[in-house]
Amino acid sequence: MCRSEAPLTPAETSFGKIQIKETAAVSQERLQLLDNAVQQKRDAVKVERSKFFPELSVGYSRKNKMPYKGLDAFSVGISVPLFCFPQKSRVKQAQVEARIAEWDAEEQRTQLSMKVDELRQSLLQTRSTLDYYETAALPEAEELHRSALALYNEGETAAADLVQSLKAARDVRTNYVEAVRQYNAALIELELYTN
Questions:
Q1: How many other C-beta atoms are found inside a 10 Å radius of the C-beta of residue 179?
Q2: Average pLDDT, integer, range 78-105
Q3: Nearest CA among 38, 18, 35 for reference residue 27
């Protein structure tokens, strides 16, 4: 690069905004995950309640022990709960955990909704900043750059004034690039929560 005869520039010199379709609500997959966690706790309550009823078990096993081969065994069993007090406390514990899961899911839904609203506000603010740069600040910076060079070439201004004007124009462009970065970051984060 240092020994190149012609100036080298990157193939893409423009820096632009990301175009993503905005959606109105929190992602349905996220909400479905919350609903699944609550349903899992509700199913645990049903499982604990089912342990009040007698259980029937059937089993089969086959063993090969030397010198006997093909020992087949069948087992049938029934279990009847005699004391219900421990099981009642397990059912109550599962019900409490299910209620806690419902409250947690509702809180997370609220937090997700608030986060999406916050991101939308941030996106609107950065979009208005970008509109200002694109409609007013960048054209003014370009005009300042051209006029400073023209005045310097005609000898009407000093080198220090030229440098100061060029630095001001460059600062406007740098701030525009930072505003585009903030806009893109806000849009990507919003897409993360809504898609």
A1: 21
A2: 86
A3: 35
**Half-sphere exposure (Cβ direction) of 148: Cα atoms closer than 13 Å:** 19
Beta strands in 4-151 (DSSP E): 55-65, 68-79
Q: Are 87 and 51 in contact (CB under 8 A)?
A: yes
Measured distance CA(35)–CA(74) in Å, rounded: 42
pTM (2 decimals)?
0.61
pLDDT(10) > 60: no
| Distance in angstroms (rounded) separating the CA atoms of residues 127 and 130 | 5
The confidence band for 11, taking pLDDT boundaries of 50, 70 and 90, is low
* Torsional class of 74: left (φ above 0), alpha (ψ -120 to 50), beta (otherwise): beta
Q: Binning pLDDT at 50, 70 and 90, where does residue 106 land?
A: very high
Contact 59, 75 (CB under 8 A): yes
Count the neighbouring beta carbons within 10 Å of the beta carbon of residue 172. Answer: 19
